Structure formats: C-alpha cells, structure tokens
C-alpha cells in the first residue's frame, strides 16, 4: 500500500496518528490520498510540533510501503535526522508578516528591526523570507515553545504602532532552519 509521508519524529511521539518506526526514529505516515491537499499536509505536520520536534517531508512525497520507509528513508539518514531532532527540540518556527500602510521608503528596513526587536530577542535564529503578495516583509523566527504566546502578543502589538499591519503564523515545523544542502528525495 502506498503511504503518504509527513515528517520524521522520535519514536513514541505523543501526537502521531500513525508511524513507521526504525530504531528510535519514526516517520509519520497516512494513506496516500487520491487528491493530495497541501493545506491538510501542513495541518498534520504543524499539529506535531507541540509534542516534540518534527522534520517535515516535502508535500506529496510517498513511499511504496512500510519497508521502503524503513530502508530507503529512515535508515540511510538516521544520524542526520537525530542531530536535527536534537537541535530543534523545544523549538518551533513562526512567520511574521509585515505590511506597511504608508508609502514605500528606505526607512522600512530599519523600522522593521525596531518593530521586530522583541520577537528577535526571543528567537534562537531568524531568516528573511520572500515578501510575496500578502506582505511587504516576511520573517521566519525559531522560538522556544514556551515563548509562542509572548511572540504572538508582541506581533499583535505591532499593529498598534501605526503605519504597519502585522500577522503571525505558527507554530510550524522548522522548514526554514533545516539545512537545504542535505535535502534529498525524502526530505524537506
């Protein structure tokens, strides 16, 4: 039976519906849907974050069966997965989107640093993301799970500063903080 792959977690993760285990690692799996839905995929991997670190698998990735998950996915990259799970333990990614309501000007970047200072102070790492249509600036922050409400409140307070609208999305798996150089067929 073809399996949809969602993400790598530690065996015994408390929030997983179904896994395939190999040693101390587990791949969260489900039946491969006839009509894959990226929002449903994101919902599954995001729901895992509060129960422990998750290394998300690229949307639409499938494996032939449980043996393929063990021998082709988990076993060959086990050391990398363990290292990343340890590094991300207790952390989640959050996205902060800023839309400036005033006309464009060079002070925006400097203003962003000031606006996002409270969030940045709580973050273990951060990275700028492509802006896109919904925001002038987008940032990903890697924050402790215990700081999620503080970050949410800090972002909510940004809208009261005038001239900017701010939104956040999280907690998310640490997509932006995984080494893209180690990506292969089965990874993010």
How would you describe the overall organization of this protein?
There is one protein chain. With 188 residues, the chain is of the alpha+beta class. The protein is built from six helices and nine strands; from the N terminus they run βββαββααβααββαβ. It starts with a strand and ends in a 16-residue tail after the last strand.
Helix-strand layout with pairing:
Layout: E1 3-10, E2 19-22, E3 25-31, H1 38-48, E4 55-56, E5 62-63, H2 66-74, H3 78-88, E6 91-100, H4 107-115, H5 117-122, E7 123-129, E8 137-144, H6 148-158, E9 164-172
Query: Count the strands?
Result: 9
| % residues in beta strands | 25-35%
Separation of the first and last Cα atoms: 23 Å
Largest beta-sheet characterization: 5 strands, antiparallel
How large is the radius of gyration?
Answer: 18 Å
- Indicate the low-confidence ranges by residue numbers: none
| SSE-based structural type | alpha+beta
Order of helices and strands: EEEHEEHHEHHEEHE
> So what's the oligomer here?
single chain
Average pLDDT, to the nearest integer?
A: 86
The proportion of residues forming helix, as a percent range, comes to 25-40%
Question: Which outline best applies?
Answer: elongated
- Count every helix, treating DSSP H or I runs of 4 or more residues as helices: 6
Summary of the model, kept short:
30% of the residues lie in helices and 30% in strands. The protein has helices at residues 38-48, 66-74, 78-88, 107-115, 117-122, 148-158; strands spanning 3-10, 19-22, 25-31, 55-56, 62-63, 91-100, 123-129, 137-144, 164-172.
């Amino acid at each position: 039976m073809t399996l949809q792959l969602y993400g790598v977690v530690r065996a015994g993760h408390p929030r997983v519906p179904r896994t395939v285990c190999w040693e101390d690692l587990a791949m969260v799996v489900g039946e491969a849907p006839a009509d894959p839905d990226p929002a449903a995929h994101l919902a599954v991997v995001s729901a895992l974050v509060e129960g422990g670190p998750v290394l998300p698998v690229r949307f639409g990735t499938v494996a032939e069966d449980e043996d393929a998950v063990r021998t082709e996915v988990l076993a060959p990259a086990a050391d990398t997965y363990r290292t990343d799970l340890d590094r991300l333990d207790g952390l989640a990614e959050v996205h902060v989107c800023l839309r400036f309501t005033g006309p464009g000007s060079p002070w925006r970047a400097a203003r962003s640093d000031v606006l996002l200072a409270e969030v940045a102070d709580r973050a273990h790492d951060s990275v700028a993301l492509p802006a896109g249509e919904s925001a002038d600036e987008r940032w990903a922050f890697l924050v402790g799970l215990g700081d999620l409400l503080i970050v949410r409140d800090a972002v909510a307070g940004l809208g009261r500063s005038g001239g900017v609208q701010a939104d956040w999305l999280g907690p998310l798996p640490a997509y932006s903080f995984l080494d893209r150089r180690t990506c292969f067929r089965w990874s993010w």
